[in-house]
Amino acid sequence: MIVQLEVSGGVATITLNRPEGMNALTVEAKVALLEAVTSVAADSAVRAVVLTGSGRAFCVGQDLREHAALLEAADPAPLSTVREHYNPMVSALAAMPKPVVAAINGTAAGAGLGIACACDFRIGAAGSRYTTAFAGIGLTADSGLSWSLPRLIGSGRAAAMLMLAEPFTAEQALEMGLLNAVVPAEQVLPAALELAARLAAGPTAAYACIKESLAYGSSSAFEEALAKEDELQTRAGATEDHRGAVRSFLAKEMPVFRGR
Questions:
Q1: Domain of 102: which CATH number?
Q2: Which of 168-196 are b and which e, b meaning 16 or more Cβ less than 10 Å from the residue's Cβ?
């Protein structure tokens, strides 16, 4: 399967599975990835998600061989792929009402980097390389990078990264705040699964509110953000998780979160 989906212990693992093509995104792969992301978002048994790639790359973005063939055939598909594929894909990841961990096992470029940046956490393989790539082929940013990069690393670094399209390492990405952790390549998936399991055992209803609050606050006035916090805190405060955790705290016991 071009995109694999496994669910175990409340954690869904989505794997891009075109190792021979460094997990470059064909139309088929983009459709399959969106279907997998949409499926786990709607699955109440899934409490956290890991997104990774097979082989030596996480994802190198658009499959340029397919792209070039479509351009030569005067097919309009390449000019609509952002609207039809990338935008829904990164929107589904960013709006996922449960935490998403990117296990970046190798190279992430172009839309592959954008997909990783749409996740909540990013764990990268030591020595892995990254690039925005778009300017190198005469294109501008897509897959949400014009939004996510400035928020992760600052507007100055984001502009240089997008315009110069120079490669950088996992270690540099960690230093600038793009990655949360860098581990040896063979430990990337285990580390991501460990983090996802920890998140899956946590207050997932509260996590959904936190994600919504951060997204809203990033483009809102201070007073609007305060009003949103009031709304979301009221929602979180009405959950079984909150009431049970308060009782556990007073009883000096570990809380058990059920996501409701």
A1: 3.90.226.10
A2: bebeebbeeebbbebbebebbbebbbebb
